[in-house]
Amino acid sequence: MCKWGETTLWGIVAAIIGLLFLAPFSKAQDGSGAEGLGAAGQGMGFKRFRQGSTGGMRNFAFLKPQGIEGKWSGRGKPLLKELVVEGVKRRYYLYKPDSATLPAALVLAFHGGGGTAEGTDKAAGGLAKLADEKGFVVAFPDAMDRHWNDGRPDLSKTNYDDVGFISKLIDDLQAERLIDPRRVYATGISNGGFFSQYLAIQLPQKIAAIATVAASVSKTFLDLKVTPVPIMMLLGTKDTLVPWDGGKVGGKVLIKKRGEVLPGRQSLQFWLDHNQNTAKPVETEIPDRDPGDGCRVSVEQYGAPGSNNEVVLYEIQGGGHTWPAGQQYLPKSIVGPVCRDFEGNTVIWNFFEKHALR
Fold first, then answer.
1. Residue 334 above 70 pLDDT?
2. Which residue of 3, 9, 73, 264 sits 20 to 30 Å from the alpha carbon of 130, by its own alpha carbon?
3. Mean pLDDT over all residues of the chain?
4. Around 220, how many Cα atoms within 13 Å sit in the side-chain half-sphere?
5. Does residue 338 contact residue 321 with C-beta atoms inside 8 Å?
6. For the residues 56-64, what does the mean pLDDT come to?
7. Are the C-beta atoms of residues 96 and 126 closer than 8 Å to each other?
């Protein structure tokens, strides 16, 4: 391939990955929109939208909202809900399974940068199906401009109050007596994983535990006041975008600035230090249930299960920028493989259900 062709190819690859997980898809301006990417959009629900104003309130009206049922793992139907934060209309899907005894535990599931609420369930391998089995409520929030303001200044140019959005979402569901405010949890991949950590740092009185996928610790967190929170991190050692060895987010694939992260082991130590957790790890190896995925998984668990400073690391050796047992949304050569040796959703929920705010 000629040098020009190779440069063009990698430019296209970088653009697609940026859309999917680490960058805003498109900034809406006065009726302009962005067309969907079809199969490359991995079911994340790309669609046109417009920005307008009604009575002084900023109103983001989505055109032809894409149905969620075609990519939905739950037996019931999710409810699309809206609320207004600082004059901005925000939206999320709420799934309340028939098996839930109210008030129930709430799992907040955050899409990655470039994703949408509609595609989160499928991308994560079926959180709604697990909610049916375990009886918890799930909220799938939608970010503005398809990215969460997670504390990284390079991604905070739109300044939407995402923390305020989630805080109000929790308050509203509590007021409706749908959720137990002591059992609210946050999880997400990539930008959604960084935001889960940032949310717990900003709302320690509302988040009982967090679990992050393909998101280590942003260097911007080093300057924040961190309250101890139980955390589980699922990190792939061959993540092409959030490097296990630390450094620039995007690795060699993406050019646009997205901040820097600590190496995986230092990210673990960051949370051990802030959780004041000096326990010796309980180490286990997960059986290689799918030798074809190219992954092996080791688990380190620090502190008593259910303690308010518990820290757990799933080191997915050979794992990529993917959700364990989730969707292979792009080829392995680009984002790495999906680990099939364990169900990411199951271990996350098993971790969550041991924790509650005191």
1. yes
2. 264
3. 84
4. 18
5. no
6. 38
7. no
User: What is the model's pTM?
Assistant: 0.84
Is 168 in contact with 83 (CB distance < 8 Å)? yes
CB–CB of 356/143 below 8 Å?
Answer: no
Residue 169 tokens, joined: 């979402």
Residues in Cβ contact with 336 at an 8 Å cutoff, skipping those fewer than 6 apart: 236, 238, 239, 240, 318, 319, 320, 321, 322
The tokens for 257 are 């600035």
Question: Is the pLDDT reported for residue 232 higher than 90?
Answer: yes
What is the C-alpha separation between 312 and 180, in angstroms, rounded?
24
pLDDT (tens digit, 9 = 90+) per residue, 173-201? 999 999 999 999 999 999 999 999 999 99
Q: Cβ of 183: how many Cβ atoms within 10 Å?
A: 20
- Residues near 157 by Cβ (< 8 Å), separated by ≥ 6? none
Arithmetic mean of pLDDT, 33-44:
27
Residue 107 is inside which H or E element, if any? strand 104-110
Report yes or no: 316 and 325 within 8 Å, Cβ to Cβ. Answer: no
Show the domains of the chain with their CATH numbers: 3-352 (3.40.50.1820)
Residue 304 has a pLDDT of 95
SS3 of residue 130 by DSSP: helix
Query: How many of the other CB atoms lie within 10 Å of CB of 291?
Result: 10
Residue 216, H or E segment = none
260-261 and 57-62 beta bridge pairing: unpaired
